[in-house]
Amino acid sequence: MEFQLFLPQMRMTLATMAERVQTAVDAGFDGVALMDHLAPPMAEAQPMWDAMVAASWLGAKTTGTVGHLVLCDAFRHPAVLARQAVSLDHATDGRFELGIGWGSVPTEFPTFGVGSTEPRARVDRLTETFEVLQALWSGDIVSYEGEHHTLVDAQQAPGPEHHIPIVIGGAGPRTLDLVARFADWWNLPIHKLDQFDELREKAGNARPSLQERVTFVPEGGDRDEIIGTALRRFSDTGHAKGNAEELIEHFAARQAAGIERTYVWTSDFANPDTLQEFGETVIATLR
Q1: pTM, whole model, 2 decimals?
Q2: Cβ distance 42 to 108 under 8 Å?
Q3: Averaged pLDDT, 34-56
Q4: What SS3 state is found at 165?
Q5: DSSP states of 80-139 as a string?
Q6: pLDDT of 60 higher than 90
Q7: Mean pLDDT of all residues in 218-236
Q8: H or E element that contains 210
Q9: How many angstroms separate the Cα of 147 from the Cα of each of 10, 99, 117, 122?
């Protein structure tokens, strides 16, 4: 199983983020995934860094993969996104992954005036985005006419230096169609985990992943205090809790069920000691 650190780009400086991500990579994590919002969900007044700028910074300052879980399609024109993704592919020597979806917080759209809140329109737009990305990355001259995007004799250079992995999250029928057509990784919403076997057949060849909140009890730690603090901060839904032995068992079961990657969202905001011990115990054992 691969392990990625999910680290929302808030509550800490960019320099601190780089330190924690590199600690995670040194401990065995494969890389980092950021979020993409115009205001932090349920914490709108908190400061937050831009998703693509933060990915560029971490790509330069750390050695693992960098990506997002996931970019919101409505925030960027696909021609802009195509250029950004290729630039990051070259800058990171192939360590950038393009995670993208049609938006998990629809209230952002009218607040910032970025697009329709209607699900059908958002999925249609995302479909066109993938088609435009593929066309522009080919290096050919592109003319494209869709409902949401129009290009006339457009061309971009350079193209990708490496294959840019595509990560798509979701479980709806049209989202799964996009996963089967375009994705390398399919991130299954944890509330749909009980439908995994049924849905996996519709995801094509995309490799399945899962995001989980994790509360890690280190050796010698106060279990009741650590878990109690986490449950006061966060929901118990989709929340793995325990010491190294318990979490090894938990993720081994996920692995046996067919999950190939976990995005670990630590409840202590990526405390370096937690990252190091989790890597040395849980990740090392499962590998």
Answers
A1: 0.96
A2: no
A3: 95
A4: coil
A5: HHHHHHHHHHHHTTS-B-EEEES-S-TTHHHHHT-S---HHHHHHHHHHHHHHHHHHHTT
A6: yes
A7: 95
A8: strand 207-216
A9: 35, 23, 16, 11
